[in-house]
Amino acid sequence: MPESSPSALIERKAGKAQGIAIEAVDSAHYKDALKRLDASQRRWLEQTGFEPRPGRFALLPDANGKLARVLVAVDPSEPLAALAGLPYALPVGSYHLADNGALTDMHLAALGWALGAYRFERYRKGTRAPATLAVPSAELAALAPMIEATARVRDLVNTPTEDMGPEHLADAVKQLAKAHKAKLREWVGEELLKANFPTIHAVGRASHRAPRLVELTWGKASDPKLVVIGKGVCFDTGGLDIKPSDGMRNMKKDMGGAAHAIALAGLVMQAKLPVRLTLLVPAVENAIAGNAMRPGEVITTRAGHTVEVDNTDAEGRLILCDAIAYGAEQQPELMLDFATLTGAARVALGPDLPVLFANQDALAERVLDAGRAVVDPLWRLPLWRPYRKMLDSSVADFANSGASRHAGAITAALYLERFVPDGLPWLHLDTYAWNDADRPGRPRGGEAMGLRAMFAFLQQRYAR
Ligand code: BES
Ligand code: ZN
Ligand code: ZN
Prior knowledge:
This protein is an alpha/beta fold and 464 residues long. Helix content is 33%, strand content 20%.
């Protein structure tokens, strides 16, 4: 099923040293590490000019020239990146971490290894297997769901639109429902109009592939209701307000929010969190055709607010607003959404920091804390009410964008907030879901950003 390479973590049998030892060093540990080597190994390091600078590593032979030990230089304050470059840098084989190294957070180090071993292999098989790291079985069991969930996000985002249209995205939800015996509902094409999801239909109707809304429901009806929503724009041309080619180039990733929501729902069900879960994925292509929605059109949304389409490229908030309205009708205890919603969020915080919006301060703090704890940082921007003015319309209740490009991430969030009833705790993540270049543990392409943070937060909130 996964399009990615096999897991690079294997179970370490209790008490057994499996494979070749890797010792993590920093400048403080380097002297001690040298003491554990024999004279010829020390000379090898000297002769090859090894320095314990983060990212460097040394392969050490024994007297017969067999690979005996690996030294890897790390920055202990960056445990996730520490080993992430090794799976394809080390020779194929099995390794384990020596106990006395510079790394204290083995959990994050092992996660980094696994994330660094990911490759998207649907259209081109890898030339080699990743090196495997043997970890205690309890550690492996604790890490596996998040490794799988991250690969799921990456696979879904990396898959090009021809193979990841609205129907394929819905299939991913269906697979998940089947795996966890969850209930599934779906509205396709005209059914969206009949069931009163006009904005989802308006955005998606110009594609030759019908727009849809998929709903997965799972858990005891008596447990607190949690609604998770993800923006599923399988491709964003911009619509009639067409994007320039460089802005359109990566828009297969505009379903990244849906990928996060699907992966998070999987984690929640796998962990059997005591919640009544609703996953909502509006899945569309923002395409161009004779029947495409036009700038200046007014849509009466599910919630009853009228919206003027100021810009057809602000389509994410349109499909989300009907999904949010529907989610709110279930009167959940908490509602959260993920979306690759605005370029402005990237301008504000760059590609690596998702923007968090929350309508309650204490809630925001808990999510930010959770993100810090699992090294999946988020940064909050305010739902600054006075900026609502920027979306004023002369013909409708408000517009989906305005003349000003100022505070674009905030105005998008304010738009969504209008569909969240007062008093309903709500979290919105504007995420990039993409790595522009390869870095250790963060391969170029689709990326989960904010997934670990959200799941850690939910685990705390719904701890039994
Ligand atoms: N999908 C884009 C936002 C986006 C662009 C996310 C690039 C990540 C990278 C979204 O639908 C969009 O086009 N937003 C517009 C809104 C504007 C027209 C008000 C934007 O951000 O420019
Ligand atoms: Zn757009
Ligand atoms: Zn978009």
